[in-house]
Amino acid sequence: MIQLQANMTGFAGRPQTVLGALDEETGILVVAAVTDIIPRRDGCVLIETNPRADRDSLFSYEDLKDAISAYYELKGNVAADGKSACLRFTERAMRADPAGGIELDGIDVSGPLYRISPEAGNAQIGALALCRYARNFSAISDTLGMADDLGRLLSGEAVTI
């Protein structure tokens, strides 16, 4: 289980921290809580909007389209068990669900275009940042797993597909 913390500033409302956890085995992301901004918690991967802050991942305006796509991807996918949703919001984090702040604004050759409400707050953007991180983590993990399998195959070991 990977603990995640997104400290968001620069969007609507007061600065907010969104806390969550990613189960790397099942692919389930749980957005657990929203609070006024707090310092880095021990054991958390920290996602920040401040480029000068001590962080593990930077989130900026340029990441919004990718984050929205990750949100809809997680929201529409089913976990490894075949029945659980990949994205869950606890009761303490429901106000971070960005569903009400995103509108489809058309489609072009690069994919869907989204419009974000000017009232979308730091908590909602924080949830999007967690979704983006979770999707990127899964892609990197899958690539590393494939590289390990390829290494074993090249060394003469049997590999199952």
From TrEMBL:
It comes from the Bacteria. This is Uncharacterized protein. It comes from Vreelandella janggokensis.
